[in-house]
Amino acid sequence: MREVVIIEGVRSAVGRRKGMFAETRPDELAALVLEELVARAGVQKGMVEDVILGCVSQVGEQGGNVARTAALIAGFPDYVPGVTIDRQCGSSQQAVHFGAQAILAGDMEIVIAGGVESMTRVPMFSNMQGAKPSGKLTAQYEIINQGLSAERISEKWGFTREQLDAYAVESHKRAQRAIDNGFYEKEIAAIPVESENGEKRLVSVDEGPRPGTTMEVLAGLKTVFQENGVITAGNASQMSDGASAVLLMSREKADELGLQPKARIIARSVVGSDPTLMLTGPIAATKKVLEKAKLEIGDMDRYEVNEAFAPVPLAWLVETGGDPEKLNVNGGAIALGHPLGATGTKLMVSLLHELERSGGRYGLLAICEGMGMANATIIERL
Question: Is 55 a catalytic residue?
């Protein structure tokens, strides 16, 4: 039976919205990550059979199939195709799934899966052009803002503002500890940037974490979505800019080329969930992927569950019986940021490196997605 392995993974640092990547085009940022990926893997660009990138706001500099334009900018031969997909926040994780499926089917041997998002240069919802949901949709479902979904999840699971803020403080602490100890250095490609005044420099450190984040600081923030609610900017993910990618290959091709894979993909799942609560999908996706892999949550050494809002991973822990000490051990999107289309492979790259650092065997990645969906992936370190 064919097996899909991950040869290499790399990401940019994640920039704050209007931060270090404010002057960097997303197609060019993605191109730099693609170049670094194949260079680290030691494969020729022309060997890649498809470039699949996730991107949510596919308009402006992210329009016109950014996967194709990024590959061309990166100097891939013109016969290497590219396609851009949108499964909301899980777009690049879905890119991994599609790439793996193409390899398993025997259609391809080598695929790049990744994603990019500049929430500075292409603001969230700009692709919607002010359009409202169809009346035929709203007649069937209550369509609300994700922040209100997070409020409802908090209410349903009984999470207090203090619990959410405490989770957010821990996310910043873990992220800052990871940066201070150099845990992220190997996975990040140094990206050249130029400021408005023409100053040039290389950036390779995530911009999001705030060392001064305390319970007292977060307690002073106003709620964003509901006057008497619990969700603030402090316990929600940051709007961010970034790009990431992994190189997928059949095990046979890796052996033929003499390459040592970092991990193999054990199982994949994707589910739909309640489009009103919207953010609960990772619970069902996790249960489904564990069943597919014939494994249990206790078999996982590390898990990355995207911190879209603090109640998302907290509810996931309650419903899956996961261990908080294995969850987002080096911080999550509350501290590090959430560049929508890039987050899936950004977390995959971090999971790969954390398994290597810790000597763990199995890793699980799950991401909630807009309109009520989620992907989950289990990998095994090799």
Answer: no
Give the model's confidence band at 199: pLDDT under 50 very low, under 70 low, under 90 confident, else very high: confident
Instruction: Give the C-alpha distances (Å, rounded to integers) separating 106 from 43, 82, 176, 249.
Output: 20, 18, 42, 11
Ramachandran angles phi, psi of 136, nearest 5°: -70, -25
The one catalytic residue among 89, 97, 172, 353: 89
- What average pLDDT does this structure show over 41-61? 98
Residue 10 has pLDDT above 90, yes or no: yes
**Does position 196 have pLDDT exceeding 80, yes or no?**
no
Domains in the chain, start-ordered, CATH in brackets?
266-381 (3.40.47.10)
State how far the Cα of 217 lies from the Cα of 212, in Å rounded to an integer.
Answer: 8
Q: Which tens digit of pLDDT belongs to each residue from 310-341?
A: 999 999 999 999 999 999 999 999 999 999 99
Catalytic: which of 97, 172, 338, 353?
A: 338
Report the first-to-last Cα separation within the chain, whole angstroms.
18
Q: What is the mean pLDDT of residues 342-370?
A: 98
The whole-model pTM stands at: 0.98
Q: Is the pLDDT of residue 198 over 90?
A: no
Catalytic residue among 55, 97, 172, 368: 368
